[in-house]
Batch of 2 targets.
Target 1
Amino acid sequence: MEVSARSRLRVRIQNIAFVVLFLGVMGLLAWLSTQYTYQADWTAGHRNTLTQASVRVLKRIAGPVTITAYARENPQLRRRIRNLVDRYRRAKSDIRLDFINPDTVPAQVRQLGITVDGELVIQYRGRSQQLTQLSEQALTNALLRVASGTKRRAVFLTGHGERAPLGRANFDLGDFGRELERKGIAVRTLNLADVPNIPAGTTVLVIASPRVNLLPGETAEIVDYVKKGGNLLWFHDPGPLHGLDPLAKALHIRLLPGTIVDPAAVRLFRAPFALVTRYPPTPVTQGMNLLTLFPEAAAITIDGNHDDWQGGAFLQSSAASWDTTRPLKGTISFVAGKDRRGPQDIGVYLTRAIPSKDVGKRKSAPGSSARPRSQRIAVIGDGDFLSNTYLGNAGNLNLGLKIFQWITHNDRFVDVPARTAPDRTLTLSASEEGIMGFGLLFGLPVLLLGSGIVVWYRRRRR
């Protein structure tokens, strides 16, 4: 082709047009990338994609959700949190994630009871839920609990020297009661001498360590409440039952005399406390792995004949502990024949299906959801562990919240199947490892050297 000024101009115009069109297409693609998103999970088992169970939970949550991560300036931890939450944000765009260094807000950390670096606080419509486990199953269930609009009412019995749920004395449960209110549980008090009946809409009746005897009519009302399917949480300190013997008989339990002594606690605190470091596999303490402290705890047993109740112990003292009725003065040591060896049950739970003839007898309050068709009871041989004095020790607050979460039926659980990669481990015997090591260290270099010599020799013969 003859090269002329005209042909050169045509080529230049074509080049300019190509550059303009190329840049235009790139700009259009860049704009489209801001309007539309496409992601593909190529991992085995789709391990970076939410399961359908989690997606269904997110579809049921209307409105924004705020997740605050109390994590120190640890890039790996924060990246792990962000990657987990981003999976939810891809399915629900109005989930907001904020990071706060707990070292910069110590007062806020104490108020919220943050105990783990990387703990999440999930907030939705004035309700909150805290999470210490970073997994899809844990986060999905936490979102499900915080999104529940069910009105829950914890009614604390008063009038017999019980621990006040919002009191500020060391003996009272004020700090814990305010924590319950922050979790969306309405805290109320009830004096059966003023109001002869337990109000309708009571989610759980709490008996918090009475110090004087209840009247026979009051005990009868509580027993009737239990027989008709009411949930009950009973804190009992070592000593007399204060008129609640008929209640213990109705529940087929025995609260043993004496106080549990743990030698580890005596060594650490110089006091007859009980420590719980391991928890039986029960729905009450599911996921609990923090040590808890129980000052002056009483042992509890469940009688063999317990009708249609099901349950067992969810709190047990250590095998080294013992139950003693002797005065706790001077040197505290085990005495064979007088003391009972551990482990001793400190907390027991009972559950049963509510008899059909009793369903509906206690109508729910207006605006509350229908009463669940299962009844839940928890009896704990100590009330001090949630008092203002001891609430901040170890995992006492976490345990108290778990107990209330279970007993108020706020433990609905979504089973998220684990997604794992195919078997990626290679198990070798000692001889196989030796062969591979020898081959890499000596065999491969010799092979490469031999190949080079052969190539050099052939080229030289040409």
Note: Residues 430-461 form the longest helix (32 residues).
Target 2
Amino acid sequence: MKAVIVEDEVISAQNLERIIDSIDKDIKIVAVLQSVEECVEWFSDNKHPDVVFMDIHLADGDSFAIFEEVEISCPIIFTTAYDEYALKAFDVNSIDYILKPISKASLEKALNKLEQVVFKDNNSDLVDQIVQSINKTRKSYKKHFLIPFRDKLTPLPVEDIAYIYSENKSAKIVCFDKSEHMIDTSLDDILRQLDPASFFRANRQYIISHHSVSDLSVWFGGKLAVNLSVPTQERIIVSRAKNNEFKEWYMENDNLN
């Protein structure tokens, strides 16, 4: 089986290659492509492989733009940081996806599904349905939180939020203007309502906005310290196990800042 990897992060591409090599399947990587432009050129000039592993966000745009320029008839397995709720369309359209960070188990599951699927010669309609589904889901994320103030509920725009941290069994929202607002909801519930491209659960105590991240510092034991533009109650530490996922989120969504 011949495969192409579409991934603009060198480390992520290398990690995917290692996982593929560790799986007992005859898979040969024939190309690693990093941009929409490079993909259009390669798929126009080369015989298509048996499968493509394709990241959704590339340096020069969403990978869906590739399908506007060239027809790709082989199966696509998307790799993405979007949550499962946002990508239900992939299951019904028989195009699989793997959530980042990619694991051997998730890759094996996708490849096993690939072997059972009879793929259509022209998948442009399926890709269009997926794009529409993702766009609809993006629009469904919370745009405002209703914040109690005296005897009223005041709407707080999500884009005003710098970070959210847990306090007792509630959560406190801290805005870029340094105002603070209590909300009687758990961080888990709040996270499900936020766009994962804009917000990340750094640890058990903190959800942070991409717009608020100033820079990162290397911390003890392979951990990361995240420095925000707004003061925090304590230093925000991302665990060693989660730092690759965080760095991918930070770099993939760098255009948000």
Note: Residues 118-122 have pLDDT under 50 and may be disordered.
